[in-house]
Amino acid sequence: MKKLKLFSFCLLFIFSLTGCIKYSLSGAAIQPDWNTIYVATFPNYAPQQNPTLSQDLTISVQDIFRNRTKLNLNTNENSDLIIEGEITGYDITAEAIQSNSIAAKNRLTISVKIRYINNKDESKNYEKTFSAFQLYDGNAMLSSVESTIVPLIIEDIRDQIFASIAMDW
Fold this sequence. Notes:
This protein is an alpha/beta fold and 169 residues long. The protein is built from three helices and five strands. The chain has a five-stranded mixed sheet with strand order 2-1-3-4-5, covered by helices on one side.
């Protein structure tokens, strides 16, 4: 019985330690004295427009910082951290050209230029472009697959931005 209690205690300790490690790595580069973040709306300057892209990307970036860090979302630029930028590309290219010169797949690539301003540690400031893509059937019209693939691209870009800032990658 004593061994069973010791085993149970060790198992509980290991599980609780695993939870602590996961939580502490979630915002590894976020310092304890950083409290607020401002994510400005990303205007869409891409030649081809998607009417909801600006709002969808902005909300997605705000949500990941709100949900995975201790930072409070601020509505003004008087914040410890500031993320601003613009959507610069919404490009469709042909992929996997077949012998009859028809694309078997098309690629939608979205590019976002980000300016990260860290008012607590200016050495962390940067300007960088992030992009992601999804392939779709070459016979499909973009309008028929856009509502499915754009959220996946936004998620990828959002994760890249988060990793770059919160994980210092």
